[in-house]
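look at this record:
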Amino acid sequence: MTNPKNQNNMKKSIFLSGLFSILFGLLAYTQGDLPNAPSPFRLYNNLSKELPDFLSNAEASQIEQKLRAFNDSTGNQIVIVVVDDLLGYEAWDYATENRSRSGAWVRKKKTMGLSF
């Protein structure tokens, strides 16, 4: 015969595990999808609908050229992404997830990234 106290603890554990799974699923569901990597690949990306002219075309082209020159001369890549909404993520988590899901929008095999 099993101990009633052990059965009670087991029921609590199963209940808490199920509750945790449901809450985790809801949290994941409330966060939106991150943008796909741009095609063609760019280092400056304005995905904003509220501020589509955050930088003028000339400014965007100029910063893109500077970021590419920096990448070519140092091997370090900086990607700028302008967005309206963090989709329920904290800023650090959005940057990290965006970088990891899109491969840092990097086409290199070995990368080390800093997201902020």
Q: What stands out?
A: The longest helix spans residues 4-30.
